[in-house]
TrEMBL record:
This is histidine kinase. GO terms for biological process: cellular response to phosphate starvation. Its EC number is 2.7.13.3. Keywords: ATP-binding, Cell membrane, Kinase, Membrane, Nucleotide-binding, Phosphoprotein, Transferase, Transmembrane, Transmembrane helix, Two-component regulatory system. It is a multi-pass membrane protein. Residues 180-232 form the HAMP domain. PROSITE patterns: HAMP, HIS_KIN. Residues 240-456 form the Histidine kinase domain. Its main location: membrane.
Amino acid sequence: MKKLSVKLGILFFLIIFGLITFMFFFLHKGIAESRVEEELKALKARGNSHSAILEKHFSIETIDHVVLMESESMTDVIITDKNGNVLGSSSDTASFEKYLRIPSSSISAEGEIVEDNWKDEPYIATISPIEVNGQLAAYVFMFENTASVHSLIQGLNDHFFLAGWISVCLTIIIIIFLSRGITKPLLKMKEATSQISKGQFSVSLPIASNDELGDLAKSIELLATDLNYLKQERNEFLASISHELRTPLTYIKGYADIVQKRKLPDEEREKYLKIIVEETNRLSELIKELFNLAKIDQNSFVIHKECIDLKLFFKKMEQKLSLAFQEKKINFELLCPENTLIQADPLRLEQIILNLLDNSIKYSQAGAKIELKAWKNKKSIHISVLDNGKGIPEKEIPLIFNRFYRVEKSRTRSLGGTGLGLAIVKELVQAHGAEIMVNSQENVGTEIELIFKGELKR
């Protein structure tokens, strides 16, 4: 994680430093050019001012006065006639001869720039015309040593250099706090995932922000909770399998030993053999349901959907269970409109409904009522199994689909079952893309409703 913080820091620094350098370059260039342009404009304005005075009073005295004024300033002036002959100069003209070029074309009254290459030339220069009675009479050449411009730019460079260093230092400080702020929660998440990998699922992460890092912290906590639940469920599952397998095996082994080692009357022998057969069947049923669950978990079974007429489908199931209804004197009622069609796997749907009806029969008293109902609701088909049996305590309802879970904690053998039926039902319902809901009250009854999306119409 330290490597990540270093990488992030370097990446942020390069990006921010590149942006700062880019902006500083163009800002410096713009300010420097602006300042040089201001110097040239000021120099040209000064020349235009002298030109305006000389146009009003063009004489030797006025020329000498202008020259005297410039001799005490940072700039220099040279006044020539229209042919280029020097009439007056504030400094030795030898230094300015290369700039004293008479233009071949007329010059604007606002003046023009003669030299603006401040980087390589010793002077910048402007020229302003002097007109007397509407006729060109002379020129005013203004000069400024570029050393002053260089000094101005150097001062600007110093300011930018200082600002650059301050920006770099602040950037480094910000990046250090920023990279630590990002990597600190990641480091805690890494420690949490390390604990999870060692089987320690009681992890807690501070969720200080409502962003992607906060979402990741929530996801890790949720993962730890789910893994802890799965671990507990696996332990309970293994304990339940152990219990469920041991019980019938104990009965089989015990009664088989009795039958084998003792000389029993035929009636008692028949009784023990019947128990052995019952427990063998129970064991076979348990292994079958475990095998079904294994196939569901591995997605190794396929749902083959067909168009099913629920009225006819339920009638066949009623015939299969008629003996069970008669034995327990159950009042069974089937409510299903004609031509109620559904897309489902007939074998799996039968397995679902049989499981639900079997549970209703087991947990209902003699003379109870069981209702199997189906109806259409917009674009879905609803199937409901309703009984007025023992019901399920409210706190137990979310748990009834867990494997080997039984509301009857005593695991009484009189009720039979393996505790896997509803777990298989839920998996098969979800494999159909359907939903299952439970509504139950203790000592009142239970209703389990299946909702299949997308009805099929003829």
